[in-house]
Each structure stands twice: as structure tokens, then as C-alpha cells.
Amino acid sequence: MKPADAGRTPATLDNDRLLRALLREPVDRTPVWLMRQAGRYLPEYRAVREQAGDFMSLCRTPELACEVSLQPLRRFPLDAVILFSDILTIPDAMGLGLHFSAGEGPRFERPLRTAADINRLPLPDPEKELRYVMDAVRVIRRELAGSVPLIGFSGSPWTLATYMVEGGSTKEFSRVKRMLFGEPALLHRLLEILSDAVTHYLNAQVAAGAQALMIFDTWGGVLTPRDYLEFSLAYMQRIVEGLPRQADGRRVPVVLFTKNGGQWLESMAQTGCDALGVDWTTDLGDARARVGDRVALQGNMDPSVLYAGPQRIREEVATIFASFGAGSGHVFNLGHGIHQHVDPEKVAVFVDAVHEQSVALHT
User: Which of 12, 33, 198, 208 has its CA 20 to 30 A from that of 121?
Assistant: First the structure.
């Protein structure tokens, strides 16, 4: 591959269905991509990860990150590629010492425990501490050669804060919720720092070549309705307001996704984003009725359906299309990330079913 700074592919796209659908513009068929579409369910991904040695080395090597980002597109007629990276790159760049332990997921060597820990957090420079991410964006964009759009992403401030305060994955969120209820001003300080960092990070991804953006609020659904609005959604709105909305002569759509956040879709739609991710616990037709034409919707098949046989997969696709109905403003996706033990042949059935069944909905 060419060096990462060798220039960007022109803005023309052979397939711009994703960008048009996210802006609720007419398309000839419903676009589809999958969360975690580059991952362990693909044998070619496992081979590259073994070559890299470990997960973070894979993320930090732009040429390898590009390779695994493009692998799903070689297998399936997807309508987008998403940058291969991790939501915890920002906390890692802040010096918390990210590492991945077998069977335990991500861990931080230096979690945030005190006000002093939070107050000395640096604001990472996307083109210095996170240059490897920006180089990956540049390489992927060039290698795509205008075939499909490239999606950039980040974790939400609340989701990043949960990992940084807890020190890693958790089921109880005891430390971060202790801070939320006992020291709310301190948690707000952390979320302000993170919202600034995420804004700079996403702006840099657009400058490097990302054509759409997604904010993953994985843990917003563990909050009460009041606390979600105050500690999660308010900071995502702050980020949306700070993002560039035009690049390469066209709008850069922004998608917000809160797992288990179906109850807050109306509030999420008021942030200025272009689309909302919807998981499988919310009926897509109900979601569409609630948000109207304010935003597009992305989702929302249960990832476990991909363990079923081909006919059952096609039936589920048809059920979701029947729920959403005809017209623009729908990007088909899973309601969360694809599972590592899914047969890639089932993914092919899913993608083909979306494209074949959707034609009639757009004529």
C-alpha cells in the first residue's frame, strides 16, 4: 500500500446509498452494513490479528487496520465500510494504560479514582497521540477508491467514563455511579473533558477522510431517564454541535446509538444528529412513528438471528421491512455487533436479503 499521506480519493462515490439514506433522501434500495462487521467471525480477520500479535497492535498499524476494515467488503456487497479501531483509543491516549486481558476484556492500569486524576487528564492531539487512527482513516479512504463511504466513530463521553472510572468492563457500574450520585460535579468535569476530546477526534477523522460519523453510547441504557439526559445525551449533543457538517462538498451525517435507549428516541432526535441507531428491543415502526421525519433510523435485527437458517433470516429481514414501511430514511443493520461465532455464509444471506427485498420499497 502507499504511505498514509499520499493523498485522498476524490469525493465522488460509486455507491452513496448510505449517505443518502442517512439524510432521508431517495435511494434505489435500502443500504446495509453491520456493526463489528470486521471481526472474529471472519477467518481472514483472525489471521491478520495473529500476524499483528495483539488487538491494540492491530489497531495501531494503519495498513493492518485498513486490511481488516476492507475484508467484509470483499466478501459481501455492503454499502459502507467502518473504520477498524476501538472506542477506548481516547482514554488510552490520555495515559490510562489500556490493555486487553484474556477473558476479561479491556482493562486500564491507571483508572480514575480522584479529582486529581481527572484534573490532570491531557487533551490528546488527534494528529499526534492518535495519529495511527488518522493514518488508518487516510489509508482506508484511499484504498476504497470511491466505492462506498467510510464511517468514522467514537464512544460517547458517558460510555468512555464508565471504563475509565471502573478500570474496565463492569456489570454493576458501582464506581461510576457512586461518582454520579456522590460527586456529580466531578463526573461532569470528566464528561466535559471527554466531550472536548471526542469532538476533536471526530473532527480529525472527517479531515482525514471519514464521510459519516457514529457515536456509540454503549452504556447509556444503564442510566435512569433523568440521569441519561443529564450525564449522557447532553454531552452527545455538545459533540454534535461541534462537528463539521460539510466535507468534500456534501453533508457528513452523524448517527447516535444508545444501546437499550429506545425510550429516549424523541430526545435523541432533537440533538441535531441526522440518524439514530435502534437496537432490537424497540420496534422499528414504533420508532419511526415517534421521530417522524426528523431523523433517519439505523437497525435493528437481533444479531442472534444470524444463528438461524437462511429462510428464518430472510423472514426476519422481511418482518423489519414491514415494520419500517416504504420510503427513505432507513439503513439496515444489526441492533448491536455481530457475534464472533456467526457463520459468514449467514451474513451473505442477510445482506442479499436486505438488497433484494428492499427494491420494491423504493419504487
Answer: 208
Using CA atoms, how far apart are residues 311 and 288, in angstroms rounded to an integer?
26
- Widest Cα–Cα separation across the chain: 59
Is residue 40 part of the annotated active site? The answer reads yes
Residue 326 class from Cβ within 10 Å (0-12 exposed, 13-18 middle, 19+ buried)?
A: exposed
Active-site residue, 163 included: yes
Residue 103 within a domain: yes
CATH of the domain at 124: 3.20.20.210
Confidence of residue 51 (pLDDT cuts 50, 70, 90): very high
Domain count, the chain: 1
Task: Say which amino acid occupies 24.
Answer: R
Catalytic pick among 8, 46, 49, 131 = 49
Q: What is the pLDDT of residue 5?
A: 41
Could you tell me the residue range of the domain that residue 216 belongs to?
Answer: 17-260
Active-site annotation holder among 40, 189, 238, 245: 40
Q: What pLDDT shows up at residue 1?
A: 40
Cis peptide before 15 (omega within 30 of 0): no
Q: What is the pLDDT of residues 217-256, one digit of tens each?
A: 999 999 999 999 999 999 999 999 999 889 999 999 999 9
Give the whole-angstrom CA distance, residue 264 versus residue 227.
12
Q: Which member of 17, 135, 138, 163 is catalytic? A: 163
Does the structure show a pLDDT above 90 at 302?
yes
Q: Is 74 assigned a catalytic role?
A: no
Could you confirm whether 8 is annotated as catalytic?
no
In the residue annotation, 352 being an active-site residue is answered as no
Catalytic residue among 86, 92, 217, 274: 86
